[in-house]
Design a protein that fits this description.
Elements: E1 19-24, E2 28-34, H1 54-72, E3 79-90, E4 99-110, E5 113-122, E6 125-137, H2 139-142, H3 147-165
Antiparallel strand pairs: 1-2, 2-4, 3-6, 4-5, 5-6
């Protein structure tokens, strides 16, 4: 767990992606999440009908989008924050044994803000879709005393990315 309260980055243990299968800088990303049934949250989330919570499906879309933007920007910004989730449509459940295919595509970039179209599919059918608005920045832009944090976060994110994308290279 992060001990620095100034960092707005998820721990690798919270990742909702198992691997990145394709990435094209400044364009698109594809990733997968396999729901094994061993996830802790399944014990409490409809115990008799275990499904991945919708908020975690949305988190998977956001995480894929973050990796696309970080990769596209050569990991120069330490933070990618979700500003808005628009037109989110849940259409199917993700049950244990299923694989969630996560895709995100950059539609528009305006300075440090990105608009992305994103969706998750199960067996070729859309389970959830929507648009995300995200913003990138460095910690030192908002708090100059955290200048070294950006470099540390960038290195850590590059390591995490390498773990997620290694099986595809």
């Amino acid at each position: 767990m992060n001990n620095d309260s100034n960092l707005n980055t998820p721990d690798i243990e919270f990742t909702q992606l198992d691997k990145i299968t394709e990435i094209v800088a400044s364009d698109r990303i594809s990733a997968v999440k396999s729901l094994t049934g061993d996830e802790d949250y399944l014990r409490d989330h409809f115990p008799n009908f275990s499904v991945m919570p919708g908020v975690l499906m949305l988190e998977a879309m956001f995480q894929a989008s973050c990796w696309l933007i970080r990769y596209s920007n050569q990991f120069l910004q330490s933070n990618v924050d979700l500003r808005e989730a628009k037109s989110i449509k849940f259409q199917d459940f993700v049950t244990p044994g299923k694989q969630l295919e996560v895709r995100s595509k950059i539609l528009k970039q305006d300075g440090c803000q990105y608009s992305l179209k994103t969706e998750c599919q199960i067996d070729g059918s859309v389970a959830v879709s929507g648009r995300l608005l995200v913003e990138t920045y460095n910690q030192n832009e908002r708090n100059p005393s955290t200048q070294s944090v950006d470099r540390i976060v960038a290195l850590e994110k590059q390591k995490q990315f390498a773990l997620l994308y290694q099986s595809s290279n």
